[in-house]
Amino acid sequence: MNSSEAQKCLDDLWREYCESLRADPGRRAEVEERCISHGEVKMRYGMEVIGEPGPEGYPVYIALHGGGSGETPDMNNRQWEHMSVYYKDSVKCGIYVNPRGVRDTWDTHANPESYPLYDRLIENLVAFCGADPNRVYLMGFSAGGDGVYLVGPRMADRFAALHMSAGHHNSGSLVNLYRTPIQLQVGMNDTAHDRCYETVRYQDYLESLQKGDPEGYIHNVYVHVDKPHNFGDNVQEDQTVLVDNRVWLSRGTVTRRRVDANAVHFLEQFRRDPLPDRVIWELDARERAAQRSVESFYWLQVPGEIRKGTIVARLDRETNSIVVERDDTQGRARALLNDSMLDLDRPVKVVFPDGYRNVHNVVRTKETMEETLRERGDRNYIFSASLPLAFDWA
Questions:
Q1: Which of 85, 173, 195, 280 has CA 20 to 30 A from 210's CA?
Q2: pTM for the whole thing?
Q3: Residue 315 and residue 334: Cα distance in Å, rounded?
C-alpha cells in the first residue's frame, strides 16, 4: 500500500465508521436520551448546540459540576443543573456539555468508569453532532475542578486545553500535560483543604516541569483577590487577581491587577495537535483509568497491563527517525505512524538513548488502520503502520 492508497483507505474507513455509528440504534439512543452506560454505571449529561459550525465542526466544552462527596444526590443534581448554564453564555459557537458525576463521591467525575464514558461521549459528539476532535475542552468548578486535575492528564491526548477552578489537585501528576495547556483559578480566601495555597504550589510544579522547554506545559494561574470559594470565572467583566502569586504565598503581600478571567476565553485560544513531535507519557496515570480499553497516547502504544514508568519519544523528521529518550516499558512500547509524521516510503530509524539504532522498512496495512480507528474513534488517530520501540540485537 502506497501513501495515496493509504489516504484513500483512511477516508473510506472513516466514512464507513461514522455511518456505522449513526446507524447503530444504541449509539443513537445515547445521543437522543443524553445517557451513556458503561457496565452498570450510567453517565447522564445535558447538551446544547450553539451557533453554526465552522469548516472543521463545532468546538466542544465539557463542563464538570461541583458537589462531590458528603453531598446528597439532590445536592449534586442541583450542582449539575447549575452547570448546565454556568459557562454556557460565554460560548458563542460550540457544543456545551455538562455531564452528571457518575457517583456522589469526592471523585464524582473521576470514578474508574468515568474515563471510558468520556471516550464514548467524545466519539458520539464527533459522529452525530459535527464536533471538531481537535477542539475539545475540559473545564470544571470545585469538585469539577478536582475532575479536571484528575481526568485531564489521564486523557490529555483527547483535549485541546483544560480549565480548573476552585478544585484540589489531590496530589495528581500533571506530567502528561506536556502538550495540553491548563489554566488554574482560585479564590485568595478559599482555605478549605488549602485550595488557595495548593493552587499556587501547583503553579510552581508546572513551572518546574516546563523548565528547559517553553513549548511544553503551557499554563496560567489566577488567584482572585479577597474572594472565597466562588469568584467570577464565567463573566465578561475583568476580575481582580494577584500580580505575583508566589510573593503572596511566601510573604502575604497583596498586589492587584485586572484581567480577563473568563474560562471559555482561555480555552478557545487552543487547538489540539494530535501528532506532536514529542510525547511524554507517564504510565502511572493508567491506574485509576484502568477500565479504558485505549492502549495508546498520541502516537505511542503500550500494552494496558503496564501501569508504571514513563516513556518519552520524539520524531526527527530530518533524519526520518523516532528518537527514544526514555523507556520504562521493558521494550513493550510501539510507535504508531502515518504519512504526515515521517516518510514511510523510506527506512525509518529508531534511535535509543545508548546510541544504538534499528532500521525498519515500514509496511502500511489496512489492518493497522482498522485497529487504530476502533481504539479511539478519532480520524486523527488512524495509523497505517506501527514499529516496535525495542532494540533488536539480532
A1: 195
A2: 0.96
A3: 13
